[in-house]
Amino acid sequence: MDTVALSKSNVLDYLNDPSPQALGRSPLEWLDRLHRPTIVHVPGRDRSRTRAMATLLHGNEPSGLFALHRWLLEQHTPEVNMLFLLGNISAAKIPPTFSHRQLPAGRDLNRCFKAPFGGEEGAIAEALLAELRKAKPECLLDVHNTSGTGPAFAVTITNDDAQQALTSLFTDRLILTDLRLGALMEYSEQAVPTVTIECGGSQDIQAHQLAYEGLVQYTSRPDVLSLEKTAWDIAVLRNPIRVELAPEATIEYRIEPSGQADLTFPPDIERHNFGIVSPDEPLGWVGTKGLSILTAISRNRTENVDQVLRVKDGQIYPAQAIRAFMITTNPVIAKSDCLFYAVKATGEPIF
Ligand SMILES: [Zn+2]
Prior knowledge:
Elements: E1 13-16, H1 20-23, H2 27-33, E2 38-42, E3 46-55, H3 63-73, E4 80-86, H4 89-93, H5 119-135, E5 140-146, E6 153-156, H6 161-168, E7 173-176, E8 194-201, H7 205-220, E9 235-238, E10 241-245, E11 251-253, E12 263-265, E13 276-277, E14 284-286, E15 294-298, E16 301-303, E17 309-312, E18 315-318, E19 322-325, H8 331-336, E20 340-344
Parallel strand pairs: 1-2, 3-4, 3-5, 5-8, 6-7, 7-9, 11-12
Antiparallel strand pairs: 2-4, 6-8, 10-15, 10-20, 12-14, 13-19, 14-18, 15-16, 17-18, 19-20
The structure holds zinc ion.
């Protein structure tokens, strides 16, 4: 394995233009050979510019790694220099492979890209940011999978032409958020166009394929930041609220409630991802605590959840027509991250 003879972080490994032998035959073989967060450099035709792509910040979201492994094996020469940042190698390697979002006692790495950079994850985030500052990329992608199944979408904190153009390499849906969570996409604040790509479910072959095809576009086009070059119109969903479940609340996924849980969603709740849910369509059931177990967050503020959801005879309905996304049937994610995001059916913010 070649290494880059630049100033090196003591929490990162470096690979320079890895050979097929170094990559192994499969992404799993490659992952076996990786031991820490890893930076991969591939020189481009134009050595004066660099584009960056992060992936595997969540260890259970492999589409970006699969795409990168395939792309590297094919030995493309990118249009510009490429800087790849592989974040949560340690979580990804915990058996069974790609099952852990983060280390069991660790923090969510994609919530650590802000000071004070405490703990192991904070040190990794700080080291990855230092690599970005050194490489001065013209843009940055952060490639993820969703916890549930559903179509691909992008997330940004800035909705300019450049973010829309980057989105269009992968998908036609862009979520503009004003929530600040310490996610890598907040690097946009450094005036580097940055977009998070959610490729679809981590088990979906289409998601892996979408990540690969997007990566090929991202690395082969001379210009990825001009909107007039995009193939389709981008639908922008603005400032979604996060609907969170109280930490002590219980959730079940069942066809009907057992009476034991504070919240019950049907097992097929993910079918609502990006669809419009009308006010007469039930979403699930609450227990005796009603909606008090739910919180709606927008602009880092707690909002009145009654403007989002209402309860009739123990069933939950949207209080107005909503478009919801990132709905998951993974109870751990539903509890630790959020239940879902929502905007008005028009794509406008609820608050
Ligand atoms: Zn993720």
